[in-house]
Structure formats: C-alpha cells, structure tokens
Amino acid sequence: MTNKKNLLIYIFVVIVPFLLISSLTVVSTLKKDEKARIEHANWIATVHQKSWDKLIAETVTSMEMLSLTANTSMNNPEKLDPILKRTHQKDPRYGGIYVLDKYGTVIAGSNGLLVDTNLSKNTYIKNVIKTKDTIISNRYETLINRQKVIGLASPILDEDRNLNGLMVAHIRIDYIQNVMKILTPDTKILVYNGTANPMMKINIESPPKTYNNSWVSKPIERLPWSIYVKVPERKYKSIIENVYRPIFFILIISNILFLLIKYILLWEQSLREKKQNEQQKLELVGTLAASTAHEIRNPLTGVKGLIQLLSEKYTDPEDKYYFEVIDTEISRINEIVSEFLILGKPTAEKTDLIHIHMVIKELQPLIISEGNLFNAKCTWLFSDEEVIVECNKDQLKQVILNVTKNAFESISEDGNLNIQISKKEKWCEICIRDNGSGMTPEELTKIFTPFYTSKETGTGLGLVVCKRIVESFKGKIEVSSKKNEGTDVVILLPLVV
User: Fold this and answer.
1) DSSP track, 373-419
2) Calpha distance 277→80 (Å, rounded)
3) How far is the CA of 64 from the CAs of 68, 74, 104, in angstroms?
4) Given this model, what pLDDT does residue 249 score?
5) What is the Cα–Cα distance from 317 to 319, expressed in whole angstroms?
6) Could you tell me if 308 and 368 lie in one domain?
7) What does the alpha-carbon distance between residue 208 and residue 219 come to, in Å, rounded to a whole number?
8) Beta-carbon neighbour count of residue 303 at 10 Å?
9) For residue 231, what is the DSSP state?
C-alpha cells in the first residue's frame, strides 16, 4: 500500500508536471524559434529592399545629372560618347548608358551594342516619352551579348520642358545578384516583377508553386517588384540545446519537490504516531484508573475516618500535627485518583447549556481566596452580552480552578491574575493571564505530556486532564508563555447560537 501511494505521489508530483512543463517549454521554444527565424527573414528582406532602393535612387540621380549634360550636346552626340563611357567604366552596375533622340533612336552610347537602334517599342520608353518622367522597366532585357539588364529611362528636357531626348541606363542583373549574394550568401531569395514573373533567383533552382509561412516578402519602393526571402530552416540541434537545460532543471526541481513532500508526509506520520502513542498511554492509564480507582478510594475513605477518630482521641499538639499531615496526604492521593478517573473517561459527562458568566462568578470567591494565599491580585473583564456554551459545569469549574492554581503558583509577590471572557466569531474565549515566572519554549512543548511537571509535588496530569475535558466539549486550549514575563492560557469553547 505504501509503495503504491509513493508511486502515485511520484506520478502526480514528478512525472505529470515534468511532462506538462516540458511540453510547454518545447512548444514555447519552437514558437520563439519560429518568430526569430521569421524576424531574421524579414530583416534580410529589408536589407535587400533598402539595397535595391538605394541602387535605383543613385541610378536615377546619375541619369538626371547626365541628362543635364546631354541637353546641351544633343546636336553633337559624338561629344557625349566619352562622358557616357567614363560613367560606365567607373560604375560596374551598368550594362550600358545611352542617349536617345525624342523618337527613341540611340544617338550615343557607352558601347556599340545599340548603335542606331530604335527603342521606342519598349513600354518604359513609351511611358517616358508620354509622361516626361523617369521610368523603370517592369521586366528584364537580354542584350546581344546575352547580358540581362533592367532598363531605366530619364527624359532630357529643354528650358520649356519640351522633350529633346532620353537618357537610358541598363542595370546589370548579374551585378545586383552578386551584391545580394555578398550581403546574404546562404539565403534563398526570389525577385518578382509587377506581373508576378520571377526576375531573379538566388540560391534556388526554381520558384515554389505556393508560398506559405516559410516565405516573407517586401515590396521595392521604386519598382513595382517584390523580394521574397525563404525563412531559414529550423535547427533542431540548437533547439535541443536550448530545451535540454530547462527540462533537466525541471526534472531536478520536481524530484526535490517529491522528496520534500515525502519528508512532510513522513513528518506528519511521525506526529500521528506520536499522538497515537500518547493516546495509547492515556488509554492505558485510563484503563488502569477505571479498574483500580474505586478500589483505592474505598480503603482511603476508611483510613481517613479512622484518622479523624484518632485525632479526636489523641489531642496532643504533636499528635495533631501528624494527623493533619496524614489527612493532607490522603486528600492528595484522593485528588490523584480523581484525575486518573477523568483520564479514563473518553467522553464528558452529561452536558447542559451553561452561562459562562455565572460559572466564573460562582468561582470568584474560591479564586480570590486562593490569590490571597499567594498575595496576588485578581481582575475580571466580562462582556455585557450573554455567553452560552454546552458543557459539564463541574468539569469546566475544575479546568478553570486548575489553570488559576497553576497561575498563582508561578506568581511571585504582588502578582496579577486577569480573567477575561469574550466572544470571538463562533467561539467563547476564556483568557487567563498571569505575570508569573513563565516558561521556556522547550517547557511549553511538554506541558500537555502526561506525568511531565516542573513542580516538586505535581503529578503532571493537571493540564492533561484540562485538555481532555475541554476537547470533550469540542473546544480547544492554547497556552503561550515567555520566561519571566508570564503565561496566557486561552480556553475556546463553541458558542450555542
């Protein structure tokens, strides 16, 4: 049974939390990894987007500057060739730079690939002629040297903004691809034009048929194009390394928790066994008391009667003193037997509804008289409302007298005893407070142990009996004390509503 219980505890304390928390940790790590990979892909797409925008912006600026120069030399196009060649040679992005007349025919260029070629059929050339604005081609062109380029055309305008010609730059696609590979050498990238046709493929053989969460896209601001970046593949080795430590830590913590719970259960078991041992001890004492108390009391009664007769016969002061000592000790034996009888009773005697104030008032003369013997002052504090409990009146008196007697015995000269009755929620609280010698924490833990006493003539059963009586009324007795400061005894009894 114990092994089965331990197994169940281990399952619910270690295995189930371990599996649950481990699953949550793995799922959380995978989500974080997914988010990090998507953010990385977005960052790469942003880098290339800015690179493209910068490339286009620089090319547009260069074309506009060349247009200003070309505007003054349209009638002598041979003067433009050296300028165009120098610009071409200085910047590897260009596949060629050309000047066109207003009808779209090439009249000057940085190379001889398009001499006297008419480009007016190209859509972007038509748009420049029509709008007199800088236009970028929406598709790539393949030159006679098999070089793929993107066309960028800028108008050459006179002072009245009349079209004199066009400045055309061919931007090499292989140059752009090399730049992109240098920036992100291991990333799969696709560039699509405005008609969703692939313009560039980097580190990939063919475009996927569909795009899902494994791709991110960014539009190029100066072009009707988009950049698609493949989200990096998940690195399971890195994930395992990130997950291993927290899972191992969880396993250690859960096992420590299991050992702690096991320790607490063993501690509680030891307390139960200790309590059972004390109960067994009391039951043993009670059994002995029940079987012997009456047998002891009968001869004691006879002895006490004979002593009284002898005390009347022998009136010598010395004999009288001996008779008084004998009578006192017989009374003490009778008191001990009475305590044994109470220990032997598992439940209280017949109970009635009792007004606590009336019980205390009946005990006041006895308590005050006892206090006078110890030169102690008694104070009383009662609430105005009635406090009614269900108990045995005589046994409750015995408890209060026993506690007050202990208090007086601990008080030195000019001591104080305070008895207070109040209602605390569903309880009647009887607080008996003294300013006597008090107890150490070690002594406080032993006061309800049978036969433990700090008094020379004590039996060690007084408080045990008090506790047994109070608990038979479904109440509680609590004691707090500090050495050389005094002791508080609180008796809690359930109120009768």
Assistant:
1) HTTEEEEEEE-SS--EEEE-HHHHHHHHHHHHHHHHHH--TTEEEEE
2) 115
3) 7, 15, 17
4) 86
5) 5
6) no
7) 19
8) 14
9) P
Please give the DSSP secondary-structure letter assigned to residue 15: I
Q: What is the average per-residue pLDDT within 299-313?
A: 78
Longest Cα–Cα distance in the chain: 166
Q: How far apart are CA 169 and CA 22, in angstroms?
A: 59
Q: Is 223 exposed, middle or buried (0-12, 13-18, 19+ CB in 10 A)?
A: buried
**Cβ distance 282 to 464 under 8 Å?**
yes
pTM of the entire predicted model: 0.53
Rounded-to-5 percentages of helix, strand, coil across the chain: 50, 20, 25
Written as one string, the DSSP assignment of 126-164 is HHHHHH-S-EEEEEEEE-TT--EEEEEEEEEE-TT--EE
- Cβ atoms of 229 and 187 closer than 8 Å: yes
Q: Which domain holds residue 67?
A: 2-230
Q: Report whether 136 contacts 152 (CB < 8 A).
A: yes
Identity (one letter) of the amino acid at 255?
A: N
Q: Are strands 427-434 and 415-424 parallel, antiparallel or unpaired?
A: antiparallel
Question: Per residue in 269-280, pLDDT tens?
Answer: 888 888 788 777
Asked whether the beta carbons of 462 and 470 are under 8 A apart, the reply is: no
φ and ψ of 455, to 5 deg: -100, 150
Q: What is the pLDDT of residue 261?
A: 86
The answer on 94 and 223 residing in a single domain is yes
Q: What is the CATH number of the domain that holds 478?
A: 3.30.565.10
Bridging pattern class, strands 189-192 and 226-230: antiparallel
CB 328 within 8 A of CB 371: no
Stated as kind and residue range, the H or E segment containing 26 is helix 16-71
Domain boundary among 177, 203, 230: 230
Shared domain check, 326 and 246:
yes
In this structure, are 328 and 221 located in the same domain? no
Based on the fold, state whether residues 337 and 354 are members of the same structural domain: no
Residue 227's nearest CA partner among 199, 267, 264, 256 is: 199
Angle at alpha carbon of residue 310, lines to 309 and 311, rounded to 5°: 90
pLDDT value of position 340: 62
How many domains, in total, are found in the chain?
A: 3
**In the block, which residue shows the tokens 């304390």?**
13
Chain centroid, CA 192 distance in Å = 49
* Statement to judge: residues 171 and 41 lie in one domain: yes
**300/385 same-domain check:** no
5 backbone dihedrals φ, ψ, rounded to 5°: -65, -45
Q: Residue 210 is encoded by which pair of tokens?
A: 């569909």
Q: Is 334 or 157 the better-scoring residue by pLDDT?
A: 157
Q: Domain check: are 37 and 141 in the same one?
A: yes
Starting at the edge strand found earlier in the chain, the sheet holding 106-109 runs 106-109, 94-101, 163-172, 148-157, 135-142
- For residue 46, the Cα-to-chain-centroid distance in whole angstroms is 38
